[in-house]
Design a protein that fits this description.
alpha/beta; Immunoglobulin-like; 2 domains; 23 strands; 33% helix; globular
């Protein structure tokens, strides 16, 4: 779900470089001539109403009209309503103020009970001939180019006239979106005279691309497809946000997530410790259910964001067999055909010549507070198909990997922290996991971005076994994560009894770091507490007595110059080689 949905969710909830390892040199990336089709995440596509008519109006995203008068009018009832709720628990005025603020935009984007748009609303750009980055810029619509960090990386190798933006109608379900994507790809191939495209798809766009590959992958029109934190199996957070399931938002984690969204290196977890969590939880549940749910329940995308079991449960409660019949038919197809058999569909697309790569995140609790391993927005299981332990726990010591998709017993698909079993993922040999990376924030990770470019534009990374510089499980290297650690002369996440030092790198571009302690049960580390690690630099921590099949290393540190410098601890796991 792209950056914008993350900001929407966070704002609603709050009401918000140097890589380690040996990489292929950049001159090895040579564009093969395939046009790139870029799919962004949920809420990312701009919308226009009455396109081509005198009444044409931008109503969402880039080009949307700004209604300052409505915002000014909504502020007093929201503020007064907030005070009223704090003092007496009456949420009526607050809800009415927020509803007035959002109803104009959401009202224009409303859908009918059959899932079709209530008004003449379409994404922009819509047609392939207007959707290349070069064409958008030539028409003074550079603001319509999404995820400019990633597209900038791609454009360093691919001419902008060959990079096409496919904007999903993110209100609709993926059966509709994937069929329009099929038409769009055909148009791109006709315009460019090429026979195949490369696809980069982010979050909700990843679910669209997965549905396209399931239903059209055997046509052989895709060379490389990179699904980045894709919502292939939906996300459990939707149930909590819409009042359909449990929600207990973790204000501590939300505060840190907000810091990432604001593109700051400052760790804002201290803010979560002073926010009135229980109060905000109750308030936010009321606001979501009263102000957002009436519109969202007719958005097909919301139903496709549910996993198969949740969809089966909630459609019986919230969808009418008569008035919602058309929606039910499409969502039944998406859930019981496509989502239930995704591994088989992606494998068929690979057999037709597609190289499909999946990037998933793990190691963070789901934002709604459920004990689910996630990247804050999407469950790790939903984005990858892998099996995970309950958040905060590990797989049992005697756990054996499931091997339901990967049947090679020599392959180890269990993460070093023993929380993820990727042997049952949609594509066990072509799925990479980044621990601690928040949803959609790979653009901040200077390790992962070069990997994305290589996966999308070259065939140099065959699978998770082919290049030790790109292991299947890696730590986030976002500057907000402060430090990165690996044993000297070892692949990330591994050690051997002869390892003599732990290498700790400062990921920050701004703050120096002092280590307070490095601790692991059964191991000894010699820490120079006077040593300061400058931004982008690394030091070696001597170690002895390494033993055991797994090591849990806790690194406690403080960042100099940061507002509130209380120490934080980053936990890193290693497997014996």
């Amino acid at each position: 779900m792209k950056k914008l949905v993350s900001i929407l969710l966070c704002a609603a909830l709050l009401f918000g470089t140097v890589a380690i390892g040996t990489h292929a040199s950049e001159d090895e990336i040579k564009w093969d001539g395939d046009p790139v089709v870029f799919l962004q995440g949920f809420t990312g596509s701009p919308f226009v109403m009455d396109r081509g008519l005198e009444t044409e109006t931008g109503i969402w995203g880039a080009g949307a009209e700004f209604d300052a008068a409505r915002i000014v009018a909504a502020v007093p009832p929201i503020l007064i309503g907030l005070v009223s709720y704090i003092l007496g628990g009456d949420s009526g005025l607050l809800v009415s103020g927020i509803d007035y603020l959002v109803s104009d935009k959401l009202g224009k984007m409303a859908c009918n009970p059959d899932g079709t748009s209530k008004y003449n609303v379409t994404p922009y750009p819509y047609y392939a001939e207007e959707a290349s980055i070069a064409t958008l810029k030539a028409n003074d619509k550079a603001d319509f180019v999404p995820e400019q960090e990633i597209n900038g990386d791609i454009a360093a190798y691919v001419p902008e006239e060959y990079i096409y933006i496919f904007n999903t109608d993110w209100r609709l379900g993926q059966i509709d979106n994937s069929e329009r994507l099929a038409e769009f790809i055909d148009d791109v191939l006709e315009i460019t005279g090429k026979s195949k495209v490369d696809i980069y798809a982010l979050s909700h766009g990843g679910q669209t691309a997965a549905a396209y590959l399931y239903y059209h992958g055997e046509e052989g029109k895709v060379d490389n497809a990179l699904l980045d934190v894709p919502a292939i199996g939906g996300t459990s957070i939707v149930k909590g946000l819409l009042g359909l399931g449990a929600a207990n938002f973790d204000m501590d984690e939300i505060s840190r997530f907000a810091g990432v969204l604001l593109n700051t290196e400052a760790d804002l977890r201290w803010l979560g410790k002073i926010l009135p969590g229980e109060f905000l939880n109750e308030l936010l549940k009321i606001v979501f259910v009263e102000c957002f749910q009436p519109y969202a329940m007719n958005f097909g995308s919301i139903w496709d964001f549910m996993d198969v079991a949740s969809y089966t449960e909630f459609k019986e409660i919230y969808l009418n067999p008569l008035t919602n019949y058309e929606m039910i038919v499409k969502h039944d197809k998406m859930h019981y055909d496509c989502m239930a058999n995704m591994s088989k569909g992606l494998k068929a697309a690979e057999d037709a010549g597609a190289n499909i790569y999946i990037l998933a995140n793990y190691g963070t609790q789901l934002g709604s507070g459920e004990a689910i391993d996630a990247d804050f927005v999407i469950d790790t299981t939903c984005s990858s198909g892998a099996y995970t332990a309950e958040f905060g726990k590990q797989l049992p010591a005697d756990y054996k990997q499931k091997n339901t998709t990967c049947t090679d017993p020599t392959h180890n698909h269990i993460s070093p922290d023993r929380t993820v079993d990727a042997s049952c993922a949609y594509l066990p040999e072509k799925t990479w996991f980044i621990r601690g990376q928040y949803h959609g924030m790979i653009v901040r990770d200077n390790y992962t971005r070069p990997m994305i470019t290589r996966m999308l534009l070259t065939d140099t990374i065959k699978d998770v076994h082919s290049n030790p510089a790109y292991p299947q499980f890696e730590l986030s290297q976002n500057p907000i994560d402060a430090i990165y650690a690996k044993f000297a002369n070892e692949t990330s996440g591994f050690y051997n009894a002869d390892s003599k030092a732990l290498v700790v790198r400062n990921l920050s571009n701004e703050y120096s770091i002092t280590l307070k302690s490095v601790v692991a049960e059964g191991c000894e580390f010699t820490v120079d507490k006077k040593a300061v690690i400058a931004p982008g630099e690394e030091i070696e921590i001597p170690c002895t007595k390494l033993s055991g099949s797994n090591i849990k290393v806790e690194i406690t540190y403080a960042r100099k110059g940061e507002f509130l410098t209380s120490p934080f601890t980053r936990t890193v796991y290693f497997c014996a080689k």
